[in-house]
Amino acid sequence: MPPTEHPIHSSEDLQQIVDDVYARAARDLGKGKVATYIPALARVPIERFGMAVATNDGYFASAGDAATPFAIQSVSKVFVLMLAMRLRGASLWNRVGREPSGNPFNSLVQLEYEKGIPRNPLINAGAHIATDCVTAGHADPKQTILDEMRRLAGNDAIDFDPEVAASERATGHRNAAIANFLKANGNLESAVDDMLDVYFHQCSIAMTCEDLARAAGFLANRGVDPRTGVRIATERKARRINALMATCGLYDAVGSFAFHVGIPAKSGVGGGMMAVVPGDMAIAVWSPGLDRQGNSYVGVRALEIFVNAIGRSVF
Predict the structure, then answer these.
(1) Which are the catalytic amino acids?
(2) What is the pLDDT of residues 43-64, one digit of tens each?
(3) Residue 50 contacts residue 302 (beta carbons within 8 Å)
(4) pLDDT tens column, 143-198
(5) 276 CB-near residues (< 8 Å, 6+ apart)
(6) What is the dihedral of CA 55, 60, 65, 68, to 10 degrees?
(7) 107 Cβ partners below 8 Å, 6+ apart?
(8) Of 14, 188, 229, 241, which sits most exposed with the smallest number of CB within 10 A?
(9) What is the Cα–Cα distance from 135 to 80, expressed in whole angstroms?
(10) DSSP string covering 170-206, please?
(11) Spatial contact of 56 and 185, defined as CB atoms under 8 Å apart
(12) Residue 121: which of 151, 83, 159 has the closest Cα?
């Protein structure tokens, strides 16, 4: 592993780097477009921007709107995937693949061509499979997911955003079409409405960048929460989740992100992004202006600047 460009020996060192990255990335604020197909997200000011970093050594830094909650949307797919892997083990992969889709996150075309087996668990169709596993495997799946997020972030105040959940349901016709197609192909165990209710709620979970950076810590630390020392996932599962984020986490922009940034990451249409430098740190950024692929314009820029500043990537 190459040496860091700016060594991090304390939270003060890290804060200096984060402050510089924030200032440089903020020059692009206002670029992109806020998601409008979910009305509750359309009202979020495009000028919002937060960033937080938590290292395995216990250093922490944040900047901007890092303490402002936002709906994590598809970033939730990573954590629900972890729960599904915990429940189903290797049998999960009989129902969902592990290959990049090369298509938009909510595409129906590929799902039909491949007869109801989603390409990977980080597109909507594949995330429905993971959510279905949790829905079928727990008496109160929404509470199970919420409890896990609170535990990982160390924040019992984390909750669903009821306005976002209702907005998701009112406009979630494509998700309903995907779920019904999965059901028609025998690849959905739960009732469609039951699974969708859980899915819309998991996407509505409101967290801050500070929460999200802490929650992702186990993925940067071989499956162990660096704050508590508690094993959240086996090292092998953590490695596989990181691999899926690296190859599938930004949908049809994943190749460009790997080329320019080079770390595992997952985005959401709320403008949130979660990324990890395996063995080192977890990063969360949030800015709701989206690029053409549905990823945070400023968030992608901030991660690129940050990785260049610390001289680390997985490549």
Answers:
(1) 74, 77, 199, 251, 269
(2) 999 999 999 999 999 999 999 9
(3) no
(4) 999 999 999 999 999 999 999 999 999 999 999 999 999 999 999 999 999 999 99
(5) 216, 219, 220, 242, 245, 263, 264, 265, 282, 283
(6) 90
(7) 101, 123, 125
(8) 229
(9) 10
(10) HH-HHHHHHHHHHHHTT---S-HHHHHHHHHHHHHEE
(11) no
(12) 83
Cβ within 8 Å of residue 139, ≥6 positions away: none
- Which tokens go with 125? 């169709």
In the chain, CATH 3.40.710.10 sits at: 11-73+206-310, 76-202
- 110's tokens: 């590929």
Task: Using alpha carbons, list the distances in angstroms from residue 156 to 43, 149, 185, 257, 293.
Answer: 26, 9, 39, 33, 33
Single-letter residue type at 293: Q
Which residues is 71 bridged to in the sheet?
206
What distance lies between CA 15 and its chain's CA centroid?
A: 23
CATH superfamily of 76-202: DD-peptidase/beta-lactamase superfamily (3.40.710.10)
Scanning the chain, the segments in alpha helix (DSSP H) are: 11-25, 39-42, 76-88, 109-113, 124-137, 141-153, 162-171, 173-184, 192-204, 209-215, 217-220, 235-248, 254-260, 297-310
- Tokens 């003060």 appear where? 12
Q: Is the pTM of this model over 0.90?
A: yes
